[in-house]
């Protein structure tokens, strides 16, 4: 694969010259930060922490990978350290995150940060053992990291869950909480929780719905921390971004060739639906390209195991839906491949936030487009996303189509999975927000079916 023109490189340092020690926080927290190899603050931490440690409400607009997790965890841990919060006082802090994976990751960071503190903490989320959660909540857990749905369930139904003494509420990825259907739950949670508290709310984007949530979240006018407001681009400059225009019938061959060539890299590939992820994972594993899969139809334990397996791997390929697109801190991802385009530019930005994270982070992103979808590039450039065109010669593609068609035709389960994936792809395509670009009428269904290695397009 080669670029049609060279990419420029820029320096992009997220670190400031301000140290955590300058904040005059506890020795216990400083010791934990040292063990976590953090000495200097990122920009969002340097701007947010002095206000948050002082008890002020904070509204933060910061991209994924900016260090905002510590920006809200440190104030919680420090407050509880000062007041020596006993478990009998119930829950002092609630952190809300949109997905189970982000809840688990945030809780892992919290566990490390609390390694020299006595604070009790737990996760509360769908898919985990509710009975165990009830036991922890009724005994008294100081810090809770939760998804909105399960938190509301406990607020409404768990007798003995003491939250009237709540001191701090954190809402992380507020826009994402609303995007995935938690708007009613969020407003009900805010109605139930005590109003006399400190609130820290973070959102990568500001929409009308987020603004409505902000109005009911804060009792007092918050300090606004917007570290990305003056950026010339919406994505970090350590990220080399490109797009590849190829016809539907050779899309999978192109992906296969790309994965083969980059088998020693760490890669995330995004697809439009669970069934599509499931099929391509089955197919690639069957033909000896080992891949992991992460999507919403998996049981929670499977999702958790997959997430941590990918995190720990030196090289691996993860196929996923947008469940993994926000907030997850997966170390050293080399490539983000968007095989199915996102619903809108902000989703593109969220997806590529998985790579080039942190200080001097480097990574690459590749967007697949059909010739009829090139209009999407205009909207990406409007959103300050710098993209360059890649090309791959058809003669360089792996010649596997006829063998795969023969394989699928003979394998009942793969054939069934392929048809389900094809149908799911079309349904997702038909529901795309930008229908003037992602237009069903412009699709060559036979060519699309070929990318799913099937010949029969009549599946309805």
TrEMBL record:
Origin: domain of life: Eukaryota
Catalytic activity of the protein: ATP + H2O = ADP + phosphate + H(+)
Keywords: ATP-binding, Helicase, Hydrolase, Nucleotide-binding, RNA-binding
A Pfam family that the UniProt record links to this protein: DEAD
Gene Ontology molecular function: any one: RNA helicase activity
UniProt domain Helicase C-terminal: residue ranges: 238-408
Family statement: Belongs to the DEAD box helicase family. DDX18/HAS1 subfamily.
Name of the molecule in the record: ATP-dependent RNA helicase
Species this protein is from: Galdieria sulphuraria (Red alga)
